Amino acid sequence: MKLEGRKAIVTGAAKGMGSAITRTLAREGADIVLTARDVAPLVEVAAEVRAIGRESWVVGCDVTDDDEVREMVDKALEVFEGRIDILVNVAGVTGPIETPVQDIDVSDFDHVVTANERGTFLPIKYVVPTMIAQKEGKIVNISGTSGLRGYPMRTAYSASKWAVRGITRTVALELGPHSINVNAVCPGIVDGPRMQNLCEEKARVRGWTADQVYEEYVQDMALKRVTVAQDIANAVLFLASEDSRQITGQHIAVDGGWDV
Q: Distance between CA 25 and CA 44 in Å, rounded?
């Protein structure tokens, strides 16, 4: 197993990509602290991790709250007996959909930026001292292909995902001397409830059907097929394992060729 005995924290661990990532890391040998604001879905995924034969702990945490993140990391250090080998920052929000910049409410913009930027920064802030002391660690942030190109009608979301890439590259430079790898996975549109909501909202604004919006996305992709959560989990596993030992400050786009 690629992650035998490794200790991991996954934020946003219970839904969509987060649950696929959590299960994949567990199958490869990692013990995991699962964290998110909504605890109930975490309990179910944590039980699946234990069924695989790995240890899991559920910690409720708002990743934008300084005190809660510090306490979550302290709990992880307690159950992991002082080690944290892997941090995967999945938690995030989508924000306004199909909304021109002039129509975005300031509070909605601030909410997206705070959730996606601060929610990436804070777990890194509190995990890094342990990784530096260990002289090793893997940090994987979930950015997005909207952080690689302009994304009309999604100013807040695109801005926040560009920022996650900025955090990734800067922290990689800081932590490289300590043998800590920091990288990002950039998903495109990922099949699931969030994509369905996106298609439905775009369809409502445009006067289309959700199927028409879905097909528009498919036709924009070189591979003409939609990414699934396991595709993202596979990329995260690569970056969390020693297979990526000489890769840092980089991003992997997992988008079927949407950004080509």
A: 16
Whole-prediction pTM: 0.97
Q: Is 161 a catalytic site residue?
A: yes
| Interval 201-214 mean pLDDT | 95
- Assess if residue 198 is contained within a domain: no
Catalytic residue among 161, 202, 214, 217: 161
Helix/strand/coil for 10: strand
Residue 213 lies in a domain: no
Whether residue 42 lies inside any domain: the answer is yes
Query: How far is C-alpha 160 from the geometric centre of its chain's CA atoms?
Result: 13
Listed residue (181, 147, 180, 151) closest to 164, CA to CA: 147
How many domains does one find in the chain? Answer: 1
| CA pair distance 98, 75, nearest whole angstrom | 40
CATH code where residue 13 lies: 3.40.50.720
Percent pLDDT > 90 in the chain is 97
pLDDT band for position 192 (cuts 50, 70, 90): very high
Give the model confidence (pLDDT) of 3-52 as tens digits.
Answer: 999 999 999 998 889 999 999 999 999 999 999 999 999 999 999 999 99
Secondary structure element (H or E) that encloses residue 186, with its range: strand 180-187
Report the DSSP pairing between strands 251-254 and 86-89. Answer: unpaired
- Above 90 in pLDDT, residue 260? no
Q: Count helices and strands (H / E) in the chain.
A: 9, 7
Catalytic member of 126, 157, 214, 217:
157
Q: Answer yes or no: 135 catalytic.
A: no
> CA 235 to CA 20: how far, in whole Å?
11
